[in-house]
Amino acid sequence: MQPKKAQKRRDTQDIELAMDLMVVLSEKDDRNVENAIQQRLANRLELRTFCDLKAETVAISKLVKQFGKDAQNIRQIMGLFGKFKRIIRFEEPSAQDFSVSSRTLEKLPSLSIPHEFLCPITLEIMTDPVIVATGQTYERESIQKWLDSNHRTCPKTGQILRHLLVVPNYALRNLILEWCEKNDFELPRKAISVGSDGSSSELVKQISCLVQDLSSSQLNARRHAILELRTLSKDNPDNRILIVNMGGVTPLVQLLSFPDSKIQEHAVTALLNLSLDNANKRVIAREGAIPAIIDILQNGTDEARENSAAALFSISMLDENKVLVGSANGIPPLGDLLKNGTVQGKKDAATVLVNLSLHQANKSRAIKAGAIPPLLDLLEDQNLGMIDKALSLLWLLASHPEGRGELGRLSLIKTLVEIIKNGTPRNKECATSVLLELGLHNSSFVLASLQYGVYEHLVDIARNGTNRGQRKAYSLLQHMSKCEHIA
């Protein structure tokens, strides 16, 4: 039926689309095209966001290779993209907007660059990537221009920014530099500095001496060296590479077992900083750091335990390290931190457990380690701000038979329904996901949630929730319909 309906109205829509294109692409008319026409055309072509334009630009690069930079149709398309950028308030109109065609075409040969390396605003490789309040990354110069123009939203997501601070994304910058070196791609010089003062040789000498002092017989020398390396590795990705290349990991791992709680704390924190580099994660695991970090997680000071959890999270971003952490009995102390730790410790433990539980064997370990009861307690405490994290972990554990068995409490269903009724959009999405996971394997959960009045709220989520929330709510409503027929 849908194709038939589409067939009936195809001609009218095609004519309107063609007319809009003729007006917008006209190079003879110097007058500004009405924004309404451009907006209508952008909607019909489904080029409504920066992501849409970015993906389309990548596709256009193939046409450039096939037809050449001077092809008339390519120039028109790139000019059209420039107009669409202004429609969605990409940046304030300026003289630069009218040179977007030639400027973008010059950059198109480099579009074999990984998409995550491209700034969502300029669609060019980033040299100084920074993170805004929503977690999105942009080229510093571009996002600063956006903010300086009195915009208070994230260009990519449209969300209102809670603050206007930007934080350097050193991890991504390091990946970009590695990719450029591997592919012989030259970045502007401002992106390849080796230290804030440019004195790379002095820095190398300094780090070399500090690494040697980690094994010094003088306790004060060790303490000074480890504290300095912790500081140097905190913010600068180049320093992390230098420290590892100069053999800093091995003595740091050895100091994890040193009978001094402060040295242990500094050592695990330095390794946490170094692990922010992906290549370093493997080096740290290969040097046998994971069991020693787990030991500090179990027996260290509060701050050392929190940083140990954060280090395990960073290291376990690699799948092979998820297995190593689980097999090294790292999950039980995380369960204890989740139950008895500080507020920050609980947050760190939940974050690590979510990451580790992406590996199937670790789900069973987390359940046996007693992770579920404290998670249910976290759902009841609104002040901790951990509902989403707790629900995410419960969703993963509910996909395991042992987890579903332990979660088979109607009190949990009541809590989930309350969150679906009164939570934030993200809360509702996560709670719906957990309820769907449980309900697909046990219809009694579904029937219980219906008794608590969840149905009308699921309908609202299916209409107005987040994208994922809408999908989950729709699936759950369909499953409920089947369960009611069976009942």
TrEMBL record:
Its EC number is 2.3.2.27. Keywords: Repeat, Transferase, Ubl conjugation pathway. ARM repeats lie at residues 247-289, 288-330, 329-371. Pfam families: ARM_PUB (PF25598), U-box (PF04564). It is an enzyme of class 2 (transferase). PANTHER family: RING-TYPE E3 UBIQUITIN TRANSFERASE (PTHR23315:SF49), U BOX DOMAIN-CONTAINING (PTHR23315). Functions as an E3 ubiquitin ligase. This is RING-type E3 ubiquitin transferase. The lineage of its organism: Eukaryota, Viridiplantae, Streptophyta, Embryophyta, Tracheophyta.
